[in-house]
Amino acid sequence: MSGKRTPEDYVFLERLGQGSYSTVFRAVERNNSTKNYAVKVCSKRHIIQEKKVKYVTIEKDLLNKLGQGGHPGIVRLFCTFHDAENLYFVLEYVSGGELLNLVRKHGPLPEVWYKHLFAQLVDTVDFMHSHGVIHRDLKPENVLLSHEGRIVITDFGAACSITTAGRDRSASFVGTAEYVAPELLLYSQCGLSSDIWALGCILYQLTQGIPPFRGENELQTFEQIVHLDYKWRVVTPQQVVTLVQSILVLDPLLRPTSKHLKQNPWLSAINWENKSSLWKGIWELPEKVRNRQGHAQERPVTTNNGIRPARKKPTQTRSTSAIVEWRQKLGLNSLPSPPSSTGNTRSTPNNQVQQPKLRNKPQRAHSQDSSSTPPISTTHIISDLPILKRDVVRTLEIPFNSAQTALSFESFSSVDDSAITEFVTNNKSAILNRSSTCAMTLDAKGNLSYLDQNRTEKHMISISDPELSMYDFEFDEDARTGFLILEKYKSKLWFIATAAVDSTSYPDVRTFNSHKSWVDSFFTARNLTATTENRRPRSAPNTNSPSVPRSAPQVATPRVKLKPKTNTSGSATMVVSSSRYEVLHTLSNSGMKGSDASSGASAAFRSLKKK
């Protein structure tokens, strides 16, 4: 294609599909009707209203970048143009339909098929990742089949580059419920390993005919994901089961990379360098594969010169609000970072094909000072349990007072993001000046306590307390800046800082795991507590009581990440990357209203029932 294009250069035929802000049509050039194209038409008005301009630009740039490699598994972008109302993406037309339709028609596929298709997916994802591109929405609907039956990955509307993935956290609620990675649910983070997770889900679906995680609604699906709650319903080769289990793990650092997948024993017969063999379509495979009923597999039925019927793609709005709602119910008020562990929180199913059970491996604390819990020479912190972390910090405690109208140093009645933001912004120095140095300890049961300078032992709160909320105001332990803020609903508010700490105030107190962050330690305590609760024998449930989750989700302590912003007046203010207002607004629109809802994120914990 040469020269500037306009809509008048094309004849638009039937609609192929529709997304949240775009519609895809089959089209041919007006002067050459022999070649089909898939033209994606994006409404400028909708893009601007939904603040999608950046993502449309990223999609174009990444498709152009990947297109330079000429990989057969990436949909080709021929050109883009626009008019007053729309943006137009002229894409490769892929006539064989979606991979999802193949699975829906035939159910579980023969091994020779799903191995060939999975190998093509791995090769394509490896190509994307080697060029620094994360798709972020891999699923059978976004995998098309050519007329010969080879895969083509499409829909890069949620894609991002590795260099921008870390900065794009506030907009990282992407993907589809059944294929969303646990790190997105728990931490709002998405990386290369999130694509690998999706590959594991797809491989499972090719062998079983359904996705591994599918609840009655999206919230139940999310629960299944973070519990790795899936079963093998169709007898599957053990190598495939083992491969899927190695992918579907909670810790993204433990998942194989795309290059590791190429070395998997199950794929050992694949010649990755022989592209002509690797990229044959499944309809071109040398042996005639028969399905379980003994009938020869057929090519997908198409209509009108190979055109598949249009199907409206579900929008992502519900998935996004469902993730927000799910996180709110679990007290995950925004964006905590995952533990820095390389795998001690891993939880995987076992190798029994029919019904794998979950193995929970709680993270162990490792000390830089001693291999066991260090003693305190002259006194002891409240808990005699194993210690996860102990360090010297500064704390300021503010009590609850229902008569108080605003947050002050004397008391508080209710808090929200804007109140905390305003208070900290206006009183950073005063908070530090009024705070006291203490030795704070977190034990294995999640009890947080401290020893003040008078050597008085005080219990603060349990990390598993359902009425605890946590906020992060530029808290950086390495740089010794910001505050970690804990709120016990209608009880206490604590400001914790590592700035201006005089560790010599406690010569008799030995720090423990000082190299590990407090937030990571809270996460570990929460996991240990959940594991202990799961192991306790339970009495028969009361049939008149509401149903509760079968096991406590392995989630981090709730945390709201507050980020700086400068307003027009020049004074420093703060904004919230995932505000409680958004969450409560979503819940209110869903009919989940209550008098406590406006009192703060801690009210969300009231709906979290522990076993």
From TrEMBL:
Q: Quote the biased-composition stretches of kind Polar residues, using this chain's numbering.
A: 346-357, 565-574
Record keywords = ATP-binding, Kinase, Nucleotide-binding, Serine/threonine-protein kinase, Transferase
- Record-annotated Protein kinase domain positions: 10-267
This entry's Gene Ontology molecular function terms read:
ATP binding; protein serine/threonine kinase activity
Matching InterPro entries, A to Z?
Answer: Kinase-like_dom_sf, PDPK1, PH_PKH3_C, Prot_kinase_dom, Protein_kinase_ATP_BS, Ser/Thr_kinase_AS, Ser_Thr_kinase_AGC
What is this enzyme's EC? 2.7.11.1
Q: Which PANTHER family does the record match to this protein?
A: SERINE/THREONINE-PROTEIN KINASE, SERINE_THREONINE-PROTEIN KINASE PKH3
Protein's UniProt name: non-specific serine/threonine protein kinase
Organism lineage reads as: Eukaryota, Fungi, Dikarya, Ascomycota, Saccharomycotina
